[in-house]
Amino acid sequence: MIQSGNLTSKAHYEILYVEEDSSFEEIHTCYRSSILSFHPDKMLTASETSNPEQESGNIRLEDLSIEDAGDVFELSYDCRCGDYFVINSSELADIGYPLLKNGSKIYLQTPRSLPASVVLPCGSCSLKALLLINADSKLQTELSN
């Protein structure tokens, strides 16, 4: 049994659902299966599998949260591991989609811009998301002060 302070938890065998007298091969197989079942890159919740766009890793510009980081705006999207996919306004401007600030509102300037996509890596895990941007993308939001 694993003991932590006053709490008693399951034994390693119970966690893997194997008997204590199991062979090395049985334990190894159950261990590998558990790793793959509980790895954040492999886990999908019911809500993620019901949305095909999410399942494919595609996100739209409208799905991103915006934060003023001084010289640039940071746009982020939650990863299922708890960290974020991030792109900033200077990176968007480099691919032809500059952000403009008018008072407390932010606009995406898209005159004559071609559709674009950018692969955004998560800051912690190995997941990547494809950010889809086109001239129809509506990014008009108010910054909270």
Note the topology.
Blueprint: E1 3-4, E2 7-8, H1 12-16, H2 24-38, H3 46-50, H4 52-55, E3 58-60, E4 65-68, E5 73-78, E6 84-88, H5 89-94, E7 99-102, E8 105-108, E9 116-121, E10 128-133, E11 140-142
Parallel strand pairs: 3-10
Antiparallel strand pairs: 1-2, 4-5, 5-6, 7-8, 8-11, 9-10
Report on the architecture of this protein.
With 145 residues, this protein is α+β, with helices and mostly antiparallel strands. The protein has 5 helices and 11 strands, in the order ββααααββββαβββββ. The protein has helices spanning 12-16, 24-38, 46-50, 52-55, 89-94; strands at 3-4, 7-8, 58-60, 65-68, 73-78, 84-88, 99-102, 105-108, 116-121, 128-133, 140-142. The strands form 4 sheets. The protein has a 3-stranded mixed sheet with strand order 3-10-9. A 3-stranded antiparallel sheet has the order 4-5-6. A 3-stranded antiparallel sheet has the order 7-8-11. The radius of gyration is 22 Å and the shape is elongated. Residues 44-55 have low confidence and may be disordered.
Distinctive features:
145 residues; alpha+beta; 3-stranded mixed beta sheet; 3-stranded antiparallel beta sheet; 5 helices; 24% helix
In short:
Belongs to the DPH4 family. This protein has 145 residues and is of the alpha+beta class. It has helices at residues 12-16, 24-38, 46-50, 52-55, 89-94, and strands at residues 3-4, 7-8, 58-60, 65-68, 73-78, 84-88, 99-102, 105-108, 116-121, 128-133, 140-142.
